[in-house]
Specification:
mainly alpha
């Protein structure tokens, strides 16, 4: 008796589910973050102040976060998706570094890095229709 591997459609379906799960988490995090940034929520204002950034930076980040989330969820447009993933990586590594440089607790440094890992999984799991050829 020989072992058989799962059929290709099962692997493809599992990969697609994992892609949408990771992409949905990243998009949700960036939509929520973008909305809070644009609302200049008290937590955002306090965070910007503690990091030494002017408050208007939150408005700029908020717009870009919303556009990035929309780009990830929109059909087709692979070049725009490449730019969105790059922007997400810049945002999250910048957030982690900013928290590290001001001596924030390790959780504040690790949280954006964990989300970066989820974004990297989303990027690597993309279907061919969402890849730049």
């Amino acid at each position: 008796m020989t072992a058989t591997l799962p059929s290709t459609p099962a692997l493809t379906k599992g990969r697609l589910v994992a892609y949408w799960a990771t992409t949905g988490l990243v998009a949700l995090a960036f939509v929520a973050g973008g909305v809070f940034d644009l609302m200049l929520a008290p937590e955002v204002a306090a965070g910007m102040e503690s990091l030494g950034y002017p408050l208007y930076v939150a408005s700029i980040l908020g717009v870009w976060k919303l556009l990035g989330a929309a780009a990830l969820l929109a059909p087709r447009m692979p070049l725009i998706k490449e730019w969105a993933y790059a922007g997400i990586a810049f945002d999250l590594t910048g957030a982690a570094a900013s928290h590290a440089f001001v001596g924030d607790p390790i959780a504040n440094v690790a949280t954006p890095l964990v989300l970066l890992g989820v974004a990297a999984a989303s990027y690597l799991l993309r279907p061919d229709t969402r890849r730049l050829r």
